[in-house]
Structure to design on (219 residues):
């Protein structure tokens, strides 16, 4: 996923950026929306989660909304690549994270055991590497998608919309030749960042293909 450049923003709830795309962006905490199922605190035991019948049924409910702690910045971006509404809790206190989990019905993903135990809905991960973290999360949440969806801005979590190609000029930092082509271009409604298919998208797809292969081999 190729991105145009965006200005830096203060720390807070945002995305961990990558040197290959744009600097960090930030997003405001969205309006509180209560209700919906909140999964219990869960962790991997001997590599496998323990799920009851009711929990398995609840896992098939509509898309979860995540909040990811600051130890899992790359994972937060990948959840956005998958189209999930994902807050990245960078530079905020644990009690603030817990308040967001409770008030917005978000699912916490963390490597902090104490924080996970205090949350009403949390997934505790152990791995340090991105691929391992994705595999752990998939084991805990089997419905995790494995295909790229241009729905969420990986920088600020805003909604992406297709660029209006009837405009005479392309969005800022979108090359003229690309604007004149048939390559889909998407813009974030919040931060204005533009995205299109690129070499970075291929790398993301390879990572997700390995995740899908692992799911298939375990089926």
């Amino acid at each position: 996923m190729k991105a145009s450049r965006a200005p830096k923003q203060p720390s807070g709830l945002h995305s961990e950026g990558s040197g290959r795309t744009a600097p960090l962006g930030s997003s405001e905490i969205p309006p509180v929306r209560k209700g919906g199922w909140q999964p219990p605190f869960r962790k991997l035991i001997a590599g496998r989660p323990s799920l009851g019948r009711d929990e398995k049924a609840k896992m098939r409910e509509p898309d979860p909304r995540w909040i990811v702690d600051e130890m899992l910045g790359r994972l937060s971006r990948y959840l956005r690549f998958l189209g999930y509404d994902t807050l990245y809790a960078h530079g905020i206190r644990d009690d603030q994270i817990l308040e967001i989990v409770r008030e917005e019905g978000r699912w916490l993903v963390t490597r902090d055991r104490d924080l996970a135990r205090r949350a009403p809905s949390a997934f505790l991960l152990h791995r340090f590497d991105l691929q391992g973290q994705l595999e752990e999360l998939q084991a805990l949440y089997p419905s995790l998608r494995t295909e790229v969806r241009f729905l969420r801005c990986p920088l600020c979590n805003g909604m992406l919309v297709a660029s209006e190609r009837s405009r005479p000029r392309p969005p800022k930092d979108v090359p003229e030749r690309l604007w004149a082509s048939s390559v889909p271009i998407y813009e974030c409604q919040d931060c204005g960042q533009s995205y299109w298919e690129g070499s970075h998208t291929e790398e993301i797809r390879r990572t997700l293909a390995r995740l899908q292969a692992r799911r298939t081999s375990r089926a």
Summary: The chain has a mean pLDDT of 79. The CA atoms of residues 75 and 112 lie 15 Å apart.
